[in-house]
Amino acid sequence: MSTVTTASRRQGRGGRERILAAAARLFATQGINATGMEQIAEQAPVSKRTLYAHFRTKSDLVIAHLQDLASTGHTLESALIREDIPARERILALFVPPAADAAPVRGCPFIDAAAEFPDPRSAVHSYAREQKLLMVRLVTALVTELGCREPAALAEQLVTLADGAASRAMVLSDPDYGRHARAAAEVLLENALPGTS
């Protein structure tokens, strides 16, 4: 077997993962719409044929990217499903700053994607909406577990704080911006617990 053939086959392995990794880097630094499919193929590196074999459209790639972030725990929502920490701490984990080496500060990838695909009927916007609705359901379950009053309303308030903090962190390039929202979340939780007025 020739060296060229061996190298070509090696480069062909893991193409999907390389495409997703390249897309994640480029989407984070440039934004989704500013990143072309050709640029992603070049950065992966894969041929355009391989790229389109894995992802027929850019929307397919964006949704796969968002699904990958969600499944690997790289979203705000990932803290909510951890069973190794108590319910209250899971909620407050929504406001923990990203890792120090997580640059640039991008905020919530679902909000970012919805902003770049503003048509609510688009597949990307629909997927982002589903994830934000899932987030409020998860928080509702946690505040219900804590015995908080009016859990549905409280959950909406908490996710609004989390999403707002993530957005402001991105705009201000301040990864620790969530500390302000965390302080407000602690007050909301304290006031909603049984036995408090």
Secondary structure blueprint with pairings:
Blueprint: H1 3-12, H2 15-30, H3 37-43, H4 48-54, H5 58-71, H6 87-92, H7 109-116, H8 123-146, H9 151-172, H10 178-192
Textual characterization of the structure:
- The protein has 197 residues and is mostly helical.
- The protein has 10 helices and no strands.
- The protein is elongated and about 65 Å long.
- It holds the Pfam family TetR_N.
Q: How far from one another are the termini?
A: 77 Å
Uncertain runs with pLDDT below 50, 5 residues or more? 1-11
The assigned structural class equals: mainly alpha
The share of residues in extended strands comes to under 5%
Number of strands: 0
| Helical residues, percent | 55-70%
Total helical segments: 10
Mean pLDDT: 89
Domain HTH tetR-type: 13-73
Keywords: DNA-binding
Protein name: TetR family transcriptional regulator
DNA-binding region: 36-55
Summarize the structure.
The chain has 197 residues and is mainly α. The protein is built from 10 helices and no strands. It starts with a helix and ends in a 5-residue tail after the last helix.
Question: Which descriptors apply to this entry?
Answer:
TetR family transcriptional regulator; HTH_TetR; disordered N terminus; 10 helices; 197 residues; HTH-type_TetR-like_transc_reg; DNA-binding; Tet_transcr_reg_TetR-rel_C_sf
